[in-house]
């Protein structure tokens, strides 16, 4: 585990700044890019906390897979988005507001009135990566095996359900198309 | 608090709280459906930071928080896929990505 303060503050600044940016940017593609930076910075935070496995999963799923799904859905749904322009003042406002939030967090954290010394009893645990991986395997395959199986079942149901929805929709559309064709044929015969 | 632990548990918890609050504000304020979904993912990420922080600081031997965070990542991805597909089906009827058009 690293628990480096420089890594923590840089990554947390990126998380706060780009999460605010992704909410208030008008262009949806830019907000998606900001969300990707937030998810990667979160994986750095996980690595800083000593959980390499979670960091890799966060970077793989939230950093790559989820933005691809969102990007494809943006391509299918949004049409007139690329002409919107952002003003430089809004970028500056969001940048300094996130700096202010970071300073606020830092002031609260270093004040002994908020967190007395006697209250902070938790110290970070030092484990090797092998121990963490071993406990992961025990947790997934022994302690939480039913929850893990339920999650995999849920993912399978999601995939099967989406495929069935798509098939039903196509069948419905082809049925409507055939009826329209029949009506057109009848009209042509009448004429 | 020892002198060597400059970054304490509360720093991480506050970061998770701020990310969760940004997600709540974004899901309330945003008018775009995709931005609302991104805000929900921010909320899930804030919860994951809290899980892993408690597992790293307070759990001595079992690392349950790591596994819970793993489940949350899987659930978040499944939820996002279903929500985006429902949005795509609704978009074909309404032809709009604004939340107000889906209220009726």
In words, what does this structure look like?
The complex is a heterodimer of chains A (191) and B (104). Chain A is mainly α. Chain A has two domains: 5-126; 144-191. Helix content of chain A is 79%, strand content 0%. Chain A contains six helices and no strands. In chain A, helix 1 (5-24) runs antiparallel to helix 2 (28-48), helix 1 packs across helix 4 and helix 2 runs antiparallel to helix 3 (52-77). Chain A is flat, with a radius of gyration of 25 Å. With 104 residues, chain B is mainly alpha-helical. Helix content of chain B is 74%, strand content 0%. Chain B starts with 8 loop residues before the first helix and ends in a 10-residue tail after the last helix.
Topology record:
The complex is a heterodimer of chains A (191) and B (104).
Chain A: H1 5-24, H2 28-48, H3 52-77, H4 88-110, H5 129-143, H6 145-190
Helix pairs in contact in A: 1-2, 1-4, 2-3, 5-6
Chain B: H1 9-29, H2 33-57, H3 64-94
Task: Determine and state the CATH class of chain B.
Answer: Mainly Alpha
Poorly predicted segments of chain B: none
Query: What is the terminal separation of chain A in angstroms?
Result: 81 Å
- Unreliable stretches of chain A: none
| Apparent shape of chain A | flat
The shape of chain B, in one word, is elongated
Estimated structural class of chain A? mainly alpha
Can you give the helix content of chain B as a percent range?
over 70%
Tell me what the CATH architecture of chain B is.
Answer: Orthogonal Bundle
Mean pLDDT level of chain A = 79
**How many strands, which pairing sense, and closed or not: the largest β-sheet of chain A?**
none
CATH fold call of chain B: Helix Hairpins
Q: Tell me the major beta sheet of chain B.
A: none
What is the CA-based Rg of chain A, rounded? 25 Å
Sketch the topology of chain A as an H/E string, one letter per element: HHHHHH
E-strand count of chain A:
0
């Amino acid at each position: 585990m690293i628990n480096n303060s420089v890594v923590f503050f840089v990554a947390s600044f990126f998380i706060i700044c780009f999460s605010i940016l992704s909410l208030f940017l008008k262009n949806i593609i830019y907000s998606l890019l900001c969300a990707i930076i937030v998810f990667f910075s979160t994986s750095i935070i996980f690595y800083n906390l000593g959980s390499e496995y979670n960091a890799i999963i966060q970077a793989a799923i939230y950093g790559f897979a989820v933005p691809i799904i969102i990007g494809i859905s943006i391509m299918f749904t949004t049409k007139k988005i690329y002409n919107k322009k952002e003003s430089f003042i809004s970028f500056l406002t969001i940048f300094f507001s996130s700096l202010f939030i970071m300073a606020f967090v830092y002031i609260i954290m270093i004040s002994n009135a908020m967190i007395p010394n006697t209250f902070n009893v938790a110290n970070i645990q030092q484990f090797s990566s092998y121990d963490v991986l071993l406990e992961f395997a025990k947790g997934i395959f022994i302690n939480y095996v039913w929850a893990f199986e339920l999650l995999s079942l849920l993912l399978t149901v999601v995939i099967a359900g989406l495929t069935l929805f798509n098939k039903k929709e196509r069948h419905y559309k082809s049925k409507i198309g055939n009826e329209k064709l029949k009506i057109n044929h009848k009209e042509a015969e009448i004429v | 608090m020892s002198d060597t632990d400059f970054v304490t548990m509360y720093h991480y918890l506050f970061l998770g709280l701020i990310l969760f609050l940004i997600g709540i504000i974004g899901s309330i304020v945003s008018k775009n459906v995709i931005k609302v979904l991104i805000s929900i993912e921010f909320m899930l990420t804030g919860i994951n930071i809290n899980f892993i922080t408690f597992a790293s600081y307070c759990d001595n031997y079992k690392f349950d928080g790591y596994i819970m965070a793993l489940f949350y990542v899987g659930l978040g991805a499944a939820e996002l896929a279903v929500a985006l597909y429902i949005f795509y089906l609704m978009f074909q009827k309404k032809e709009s990505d604004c939340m107000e058009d889906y209220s009726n």
